[in-house]
Amino acid sequence: MDFQEKYKKLWSDWDIRVLILLSFSVQIDLIFLGRLRKTSASMWIRMLVWSSYLLADWVADFVLGQLSNAMDDSSSSNAIIAFWAPFLILHLGGPDTIPAYSIEDNELWARHLLSLGYELIIAFYVLLRSLPNTRLLTPTILIFFVAIIKYIERSSSLYKASAESFRRSIDSSARKLPSNISLTISNMEDLNAMNRAFGLYSTCKPFFIDATPHVEAYKETIELSKEIIAKEVLIVMRLELSFAYDELYIKAAINHSRVGYVL
Hints:
It is a single chain. By secondary structure, the protein is mostly helical. The protein has 2 domains: 2-161; 168-262, no CATH class. Helices cover 76% and strands 0% of the residues. It has 13 helices and no strands. It has helices at residues 2-39, 43-70, 78-93, 103-106, 109-130, 137-161, 163-169, 172-175, 191-204, 215-227, 230-249, 252-255, 258-262. The radius of gyration is 24 Å and the shape is elongated. The protein starts with a helix and ends with a helix. The relative contact order is 0.09.
């Protein structure tokens, strides 16, 4: 009995600290494995990324709820506990490398944004319980500001990659092949080649959501593919798939915008 009570007391004292470290470790895994997933077809990598992706939100949500129970009006550690709350919201914002694991995740942008209100209520409650201790009030508020920005960035990137928003982005001008694309691609590794590949990607975007491409742009793309050799076609396809991955699965649409640069 004493043995069980000893470990119950140990877990009671360290449970939140251990779970916060677990949440931090999962975020680090996603930062590196999220990039590796783009170039690796390993089943073990996909399994590890998938499990980390699911675990990240669950752990952060769970610990955020536990923080309110850990507050003690007579404890001197309340300021530290309140300081952890915005970091958990920052974790829920997720790393830039993997805001979504699958295309279906992008359709849940509204639910993800709505969850922000619930999580902010808990975090502000924890902060208010820590008052009048103001030792860490200023850095806590600053981290809150950063965490809210990261969370909204993730919700915005999910919305941008959703089928409805993706379809709206494919207007008549985006479907047309840009006039500055040369029909001869000599060196696919330079910046000009990337620009040409991005221009081709603009014409191929409708295929990713089963939309009908612009007829003229489609014909010009077919003519272009006849003019280049097979090796160059594969390089162009690699670049186009890379652009599609960045737009559908990471925060590229937000980070590489004017608002994203300011944030």
